[in-house]
Fold this sequence. Notes:
By secondary structure, the chain is α+β, with helices and mostly antiparallel strands. It is 33% helix and 25% strand.
Amino acid sequence: MTGLRYVYAICRPFPAALSAELTGVAGAPARQVLHEDLVAVVGTVPEKDFAVEPLRGRLRDPEWVGETALAHECVVDALTTVTSPLPVRLATVLRDDAAVRLMMQEGHDRFVRALDRIDGRVEWRVRIYAETGGPAAFEGAGPDLAGFSGATAEGRVPANAEEYARQLHDDLSRRAEGACLHPPRNVELSGKSGTNVLDAAYLVPRMKSEEFVERVRRAQHEESGLRVEFTGPWAAYAFTGESTFAGELAWPACDTTVHHV
């Protein structure tokens, strides 16, 4: 099969067949590449667009990156309905099926450890926004709050915001098997109003997701001046590495990798 291999995720073998209508990056249908007890879900993409040099150029185009990320996520989301996929970083492109199998062979133990951790689990993302007042620093915000609240840069937030965010995060963490704090969102870039005082991901067993979601929904009505938003269930993007650092993927690089961003 000519063309390069765009890799979406690593999974354990699953019985459900991928829909012939499931297409991803470059409009290519997704398919499985089996190696021992692992499966890679890939698509075949044209070398003229995805070899090293042309891909580098395309990665400087925000519109193309956005479209590619959406197509990538669509395939991973479809996999989440039938298995617990281990998403691979955006724009991971290998030479051919043999290179895909080599990646699974060389990274086998890491992949298996990560799959063990996320098996039967999904990711929920929770964000809290506080309506801000005038341009004043958040009272009590110190170095220990770095990465937890964005309040210091965007104005005064309700005095209860930081403490409520901590309490809710602690409560949700107890209901999850893993939790990961993300840096505050830039509301100007995201188009949201207010100040982002919590942005966190939680790894939750599928069977306990209903209970988890119910707790978040209660939180949406508990504090005035605060807005609680949540999304999911997603594949466990924030929990795919050997640590739970958000977005960090540390799979071993293969000599046959064309590009791995």
